[in-house]
Fold these 3 entries.
Entry 1:
Amino acid sequence: MKLLRILSCATNRVIRRRYATNILSGKTVRIGCASGFWGDTAVAAPQLIYGGNVDFLVFDYLSEITMSLLTAAKTKVPELGFAPDFVQVAIAPFIKDIKSKGIRVISNAGGVNPLSCAAALKKVAHANDIQLKIAVVTGDELMPKKEELAKAGVVDMTSGKPFPQTIHSMNAYLGAGPIARALDLGADIVITGRCVDSAIVLGPLLHTFKWPRDDYDLLAAGSLAGHIVECGAQATGGIFTDWDKIEGWDNIGFPIVECGSNGSFVVSKPAKTGGLVSKPVVSEQLVYEIGDPTSYMLPDVTCDFSNVNITELPGHDGGAVFVSGARGTAPSDSYKVSATYASGYRATGVACVGGPRAAEKARKTAKAIIKRTSKMIKALGMEDYTAVNIQVLGSEETYGTHATPGPGPREAVLWLAVTHKQKKALEVFAREIAPAGTGMAPGMTGLAGGRPKASPVLKLFSYLYPKKDTKIDIHMDGDHVESYECPDTSYSVSPSKYTDSWTHIPNLAKGSHSYRLEELAYTRSGDKGNMCNIGVIARHPKLLPYLHNALTTDAIEKYFAHVFDDQTSGVPNVQRYELPGLDAFNFVLNNALGGGGIASLRSDPQGKAFGQMLLDFEIHDMPSIEELTN
């Protein structure tokens, strides 16, 4: 039955194509996303302001790592803690044209200090003699409740670990409701602290269409629109599997979503920009950083993206797709809270090594540095390192047992990272890397960035906090105007669609051909804490049964066996979900990132390359692709 349901979607998509060009008739709203993270390119905002014909311009800046960095900045300077690029780079140069064009702006650039962000932006407006109503949403900051939560016995929602004593930051993921309300109150610009990324798009849609807060299919559709565009150029050809087919990276277009009042929408980009909007590109973005696609939990709605359909539309410069089929149910009665806590210090040394047997030299050098410094810090009365990570980049060590055999590269990069409870120990470590260039293996040609610096290790701690106990406030031009109350929901937990006993599809035609996964599918991977997900999308529906049989949870676990670092969490290492609407699967790899984020000592702490690594997975005994797809 699963296979029939998956293959029937191809017929459904043909039917939907007939209506794609008419489905957005009536009132529509255009929203452009000009930032996918703090540090994104400055070319995006002018593209969308002058060539996007947008009603709303949104900027996403926040991640768990970014929140930690902003908290550290605010600790040192109380007026900081927001993304200054938003004020000085994204808005200031264009503020007059944003005003004259009537474009309204929404951003989570406020970080851990949204009121200071708004004050900085107000100064820019005054300097340009521009009148703007700037709203701020607060209430995500839960640090004042630290003692109360510690006494309440709060535990991590994944690991069950107790509430840490060294909490560094604590922010709830707020939803789109207060953003929509601020727009209802007349805000030209809305600045938030932590909110779910998709809320910056769902907020304007709620405001524009006045969708009922219990029409969960509409809320899921708006959330999907936000999910697709909130990572900026990733929806327009950035980091696409077929990267070699994408032109114009120097001026890659940023995404625009045009949404109708029924929740269907079209994704495109400004004309005469680089990149590509296509079904495979947008499909990759849809599966990015999700878990169970039938139960993607957000503050406003629990989304089911498993039967979403994406149809390419003709006649658009750079491509466009029509998206429909999201479904929703009631959200949880709690907010997810992302907290970080201090857990010692870390330092990372990166050095180039050249010449024959470069990888072997780098590895032996690293072990010698660790052995020497371990003795030194013990002699100073300190304990040994709490963690050590040695990687030799260029030797395919990140592939584990799948590394290409052979003599190894003649140039490599040594990645040597350590953690310790005391900063003083890492100062010893930092001093002892450069001496390896004269007293150990030959060919060490440079220490990237100079002597490494010790920095705090911040680990993630996530839990649920009741919405009813969260006070959300809306400020306008520095004054508190009202508090926002979340609507009541009749939430009930739905059973996950995950199963570890996927039925083998019998009687598939066999042949003499073997293919790498890259020839059969697209992939995209990303992180949530210490979890990585890998979306796998068939290049043709008729290839899907072969992917189904080959990419089992056991096969994926074996392929990535070298990355799993916690066998005691009580959850499977690998979970597999299906997305029939996209002819796709989503694999969730738990405890696979060495702690994830800035807690991880790995060179890829967010699993961004995992999908690329899976492209070398081989599937045997197949008919030719031509036989199957013609």
Entry 2:
Amino acid sequence: MNEVAELMKLTVYTRIPNQDYTGSLANSVHMACADDPNEFQPLNRNYGLLFAVATVDENNVIHEKGLKNPYLFRTQDGAFGMIAVRIDASGEDDGESRGQILLWTSPDLVTFDAQRLVRLDNERYVKEAVCALDSTGGYEIRWQDNDGSYYVNRLADLRKPEGISPPEPAEAYTVERPAQPLPGTCPGNVLTVDGPAGRKVQAAWTPVHNTGIRVEEQVSVHSAGELTKVRATALYSDGSTADKRVAWDTAGIDFTLPGTHTIHGKVVTFDLPFPLASGYADPVILPWNGRYYFLATNDNVNNIGIYVRVADTLQDLFAPGFQEAVILDLNEELNFIQTFWAPEFHVIGGELYILFAVGGKVWGPQCHLMKLNPGGDIMKAGDWSTPVRVKRMDGTPLAADGITLDMTYFKADGTSCVVWSYRKGIGTPLDTGSMLYIATVDEANPAVLTSEPVLLSRPLLGWENVQGTINNEGPYPLLTEDTVYIAYSGGAATGYTYAVGWLSIPRGGDVLDAGAWSKAGTPALSYYSLDGVYGPGHNSFFQDTDGTTLVLYHGEEQLVKHGTRCSAIHRVHYNSNGVPLLDVAGERDVHPDYADCTIQVTVLA
């Protein structure tokens, strides 16, 4: 008897905007899956997966776009395609998109090729469209205009949309939709896929979580110190693992006497509570000479001054009675008056620097840096050099107009780089939005660029351009063996929609080639990622004394438009493909049901 092949259902949809999930987020492609066609479960926590890309006019001003009526289909090579109708920021017909639809292709609905525009007509607005293979192996795109009339266009190759045929009148079509649409959604179509393909999609867009803890059954040691080095292995839903310290209960063991004992232990979790430091944004931690140093934008003093904390442990950085010093204060002579923003520690050419932005009497923060004097004490203002403004190759300011801020540094494959945010026309109709630029520097003099700035990213996606903000800012590098990642933030810097996205390039790539970088379409960390943390963003990375990579960022405790920014911290998890994840925290990191361990210990003579 032949077994019935496992099948799954996938559906796409947009959401109806509500008080907190604004149109910028809601008017994007969402996806859900189901074993039972009537029980769809949202993927990616019901947050958008694909966002329409904004346009940029002749004045360099961004015009936000959304989308409606997404439709999912199979391609002739067994992969997937997605089409949708582009709309303007208010959800209405978009004049720039008259007669056109958006098109994506994807091998697996996990990664997507760059979106294209396909022109179906020159005059009519497209209300919705569907796409299917025709008898020749090409595609029929059937669509309805705003007057209720139906048309069909034919396209042989999705990669060559310019080859599409003119529209012809057509009969009405039908669309399979969920029998029970998810609440608060505008449903698209349903597509049946085989089980393996569906499970891959489901796994890729479901949060990775802890599924168990594995420890050795028996170990032999000479001392308690050796036992503390025995780790547990945490298992995760995607097949990845992570080493964990264990607090072993050795109260019944005399390590001076040989013998065998069964003991219990508890997996040590990285459980520093949120919030850590209230009113501290854009946080950075530096492990330096056996101690930890903490830097941040200090909202508690109206962002005036650079404050540093020091402690022997991470916990003590945020404990009552912490040690803190002002190492750069308001200085009218130097015209350091306001917006002491986003200070970052960086070791460049063996020297310790702080990169930061500061403004004068006239508002307008600009990128500066200062260096710790040889043998200097980080906590002493007098041990730091006088800050200098970062300049271009020809000695002119980094920007002749506008603001520059959030500069960071990394060195990969012998090349030293700085990345920063630039914005022009803020508060005017010609606001460019904040943009990320990259350039190379010489380690011996990082205050002067050694290349022309290259535009890396602009806030063209709905999650980056939300709540009245247009942000790409707060870049920070994370280097792995095969990839250079830059985490950056978009959305409202002082609101709940702030979120962290990824830019990446393979190691050895040309970092000054903007086309060599990839940009993730959906955030790695948002207010949908972790319970009780709103507006997570402007992050940094560091390693603790165990070599664990940690992510540090600011978030808010309430879902409000403008809240108190507070520091937060948790572990970075690497998935089964070695890609860093920023949302594996709390019970998803170590579930309480798996935290208790047992092991047999043999004490050797």
Entry 3:
Amino acid sequence: MRSLPAGDPGVPDSRSATRYLVWLALRHKAVFSAGIALGVLWMVAQALMPAAVGRAVDGLTRRDEGALVTWGLVLLGLGVLQAVAGILRHRCAVFNWLAAAYRTVQLTVQTANRLGAALPRRVAAGEVVSIGTADISHIGHAIDITARGTGAVVAIVTVAVILLGASVPLGLVVVLGVPLLMAVVGLLIRPLHRQQQAYRDSEGALTTRAGDIVSGLRVLRGVGGEPVLSARYRTQSQALRADGVRVARVESLLEAAQVLLPGAFLVLVTWLGARFALRGEISAGQLVAFYGYTAFLVSPLRQLTEAVDKLTRGHVAARRVVRLLRLTPELAEPARPARLPDGPGELVDVESGVTLRPGRFTALAATAPEEAAAIVDRLGRYVDGEATLHGVPLRDLPLAAVRERIMVADNDAHLFTGSLRAELDPHDTADDATIAAALAAASATDIVDALPDGLDSAVAERGREFSGGQQQRLRLARALVADPETLLLVEPTSAVDAHTEARIADRLAVARAGRTTLVCTTSPLVLGRAEHVIFVEDGKAVAEGTHAELLDGEPRYRATVSREEG
């Protein structure tokens, strides 16, 4: 048993869908080539069997026991060769299928990680899900079918040469008839291609809508929007069903053609062979062989039509994968990365004038929440702006270095499936005491105590078993366990009650003592615990000081905070 690739999947050729499929095939040249060679051997062994039977029948009519035994042994050898080649071909085909599908999954995940926060803005969630569920299967089948398809072509050529040698008219029927049959089947492939594309697009859109509905179910119920969204989902699902019926209609015609056309071809060649045998132009053994050839041709013809079908599906799927792989991150790595001095430094957003001094617990109050979010995006380099650390522009630093020094924790972050311990400490670097301290600071100890297995309890997808406030506290605890050099928190207490918020405000300042921390909030409970408060209006820092100083001396700040209290 060969192992699938576990490391770097490599750099894909994403110039076109065809080039991507070729690149996948060549990633395992030996197994891919062996599969084709075995496929040819498997099909040719079957193609030669009618000839051996015909020779044995001719030996029988001449009462030549030696010829009968010889050709009988040849037939046995061909049968053994076909069985062995078939088994080995199937093993190679399965490996090629799995390798192509698994490598596509690796590349899809790698691209999603590379795009990061830009992914939801560039690609619908349903598109990524459909690639990981349906498209990888079609791509695997496209790589797998090449062995059988090549074997079918070689087998048909072999039969045509044998028939031309025995009877030119019969040989010409095969030589001209097979391309004609393939042309007829090809007429069905193009509409199938179009219907599959429409179905795949509808499927991705419906998957995205389903994910949006599930993620926002609580809000929808709260505002009475659930029936409206349900009706829209029902309408879209019926449209998807109609697209599926259209695909099935074309596929049924293709399946019928795969049976009817080779069958009609078999009847034609058999009828012609019988007439030639009656006229004495071919022997009885050749007639038996001709019948065997035409019966055998049903198999390679079906293999060819299946190959066209699967290669078409694989090409459609590969085109969507290539479209995803071509996406580039919104943040580019610098050509000549700068180096940062060791230790914490001053973090500055030049555009707004916000300056975070190292080791201080700072709060940022903005008249508009989106202004605070924009500042944090620049300070965390989720967008490129005029932000510096130690006086070095963040855009000149490797993105990995920025992420290592600065962590942004907002309410768009998700909880993932797995144990709660792994959720809070994904890198498995913190001990139980560190996790307990982070939970206490986030006022989330009661959440863990209520779980049947404590930290070892399983977390469902997106943490749906927790309320909004519980999820927010667990996300805060996760950020505190990471203990970054600089932590930027966006509204970390917006979903909790006032008593819990007061506890978090007190404990957060202690937990982050001596570490650079910024909390974006307009809550007086949090602002009152901050060492330094920055007030932002119209995207600019207009006042700084303690919470008490700003309340006394800045009316605009007092008005912003009063709205929060009200």
